[in-house]
Amino acid sequence: MEVDRGVTLSEALLRHDKWLEKKGIKNANFAVVTWSNWDCRVMLESECRFKKIRKPPYFNRWINLRIPFSEVFGAVRCNLKEAVEIAGLAWQGRAHCGLDDAKNTARLLALLMHRGFKFSITNSIMWQAAERSLIWRQYPEQPSVYPYCPFKAKDMNNPIIPYLPYCYCGVKSCMNVIRKPGPKQGCLFYGCGGFSVTRGPRCHYFEWVST
Ligand SMILES: [Zn+2]
């Protein structure tokens, strides 16, 4: 995030999301690309948690450009600036300025793409504490909708288990299934993770589970 003319993190995420939508990327098969795992695994995750911001789910899986870079150039222990220069590009802008780092990461990515490198997801934030979030609970005021537990504990190591996004309360959401007969019957969605039997959901978070 740019510090000089900064916006808040939630505003930046919102603008970024709108930009993805405008560019037709949001519903396409796309991936976040970063240099190292720090941004997605630690920084964004913890800051969103701390500020109780709902993090868009596409930040839960990413390509750590270090991996393809080291496969192509062999150099593993170098920083982004060094990597850009090893690849034969001139560094542009300031190092450790978020925006310039992002631009140079993109240039390095473009170079590897031109070389025909086939990219795939290198890391993801898996469902953590999913077992606790998926306790069967009832929505007394919404009889057509019941929380759903599609995965049993024995499946917890299964890599296809999806992440649980955060609801507006800043906690892991709960996965539910539409039980009401109709075109959406059986469809999965994420709902408020702060649900309690006595008070119901604490926020209006709702998102379809994309399959
Ligand atoms: Zn909530």
Automatic annotation (TrEMBL):
It comes from the Eukaryota. Residues 167-211 form the GRF-type domain. GO terms for molecular function: 3'-5'-RNA exonuclease activity; nucleic acid binding; zinc ion binding. The keyword Zinc applies. Keywords: Exonuclease, Hydrolase, Metal-binding, Nuclease, Zinc, Zinc-finger. Pfam families: RNase_T. SUPFAM superfamilies: Ribonuclease H-like. Gene3D superfamilies: Ribonuclease H-like superfamily/Ribonuclease H. The keyword Zinc applies. InterPro entries: 3-5_Exoribonuclease (IPR051274), ERI-1_3'hExo-like (IPR047201), Ribonucl_H (IPR013520), RNaseH-like_sf (IPR012337), RNaseH_sf (IPR036397), Znf_GRF (IPR010666). This is GRF-type domain-containing protein. It comes from Trifolium subterraneum (Subterranean clover).
